[in-house]
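Margin note from the TA: students keep mixing up input and output lines. Inputs are the sequences; the output is the structure of the whole complex. Example:
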Amino acid sequence: MHELKIIQDIFPVVENTAKKNRLKSVTRVVLQIGALRQAIFEFLQFAFATVAKGTVADGAELIIELIPITAQCKACHKKLTVKESIYICPYCDSSDLAIIAGKEIILDSIDGETENAN
Amino acid sequence: MQIKIMQNVLQANEKKAAEIRTLLQQKKIFMTNLISSPGSGKTTLLEKTLPLLKEKYRIAVIEGDVETDKDAKRLEKYGVPIALINTNGACHLESVSIEKAFSALDMDNLDLIFVENVGNLVCPAEFDIGENAKVAILSTPEGDDKPMKYPLLFREATLVILNKMDLLKHVDFSPTSFYADIKKLKSNLPVIETDCKNNLGIDKWIEWLEKQIELLSKA
C-alpha cells in the first residue's frame, strides 16, 4: 500500500513544477526507487495513472528506475552490490556493512510541453 | 523540455522524524517502535511487559490501529497513559501522527514509550517515526522465510523477538533456516525467543529494555 502513498507525495511537486515552468502538459515523470523499498512497479503505475486523471499529468508516462543496494564494508572499505539480501562482504567476509544506496525514493525529473510550443 | 527535480519523496516525514528524535533525546525518553504482522503477539507482549516495568519507569503506549480501540482497551487496565491513533485505513504510522500523540502525553514525565505500529511487515519499516529502536516481532506460525521476504524490516530492526515458541513443535518453522537467514541479513542482530503464554523469555526482553534505557540516560 505504500505505492499509493509515494505517488500521492510526488503529485503536488509534479503539479507545482509544471505550473512554475508553464507546462501545458506533463508527458513523462521519472522516479528512482531503491531496491530495499520493495515497491511493486505495477502498483506504482496503477496508482500514478489513477492519481494523474484530470491533472496536468493525465496520461503521462511513469518511468521507474531501480537503484541497486550498494554497501561499503566497514572492515576492508570496499564497495559492493548486495544481491539476494546477503549482507556479507565478498572480499573479506565481514558482515559489518554500511548501506550507501538502495533506500532512495526520488522524484528525479519531469518532461512536458510548454504553453507556447506549437 | 525536461525539468530536473531530484527531490526525496519521504523528505517531509524524515524531517519530522528527526525533530522527534531530538526531542526524545532532550527529554531522555527511550521510544521503541514495535513492528510485526497482525496476530504475532505485539499486544500480548505489552500486556506481559507493562506490569513488570511500570513501577520502575514512567511508561506510555502509542497505539496504532487501523479502525478500532480494541488493543488500547486491552492495555487500559495496566494504568499507563495510552494515546490511540486510528489510521483510518493507512497501513503504517508516520512521524506526524506520533507528534500528535505526543501532544496527548505528559512528555516531561516519561522514561519509556512503546509504539505499537499497525500490523504489517512492509510499510512500517519504511517510515521513520523518530524512534530509538525498531523491534521486529515474528511468531513461529508465520514461517521461517519472513526475514528474507521482508529484508528492509530486519535490516532496520535493532532487535528481533521470535514469539510463540510454544507452537514451534506444531508448525513448519525451522530455527536453523531462520537463524541462517538472519545471519545473512544482519549478522549481529540479536534475537530473543519468547513464549508469552508461559512467560518464557520475557525476562530477557525486560533486560534488553532496561539496558537501552540505561544507555540512554548515560548518553
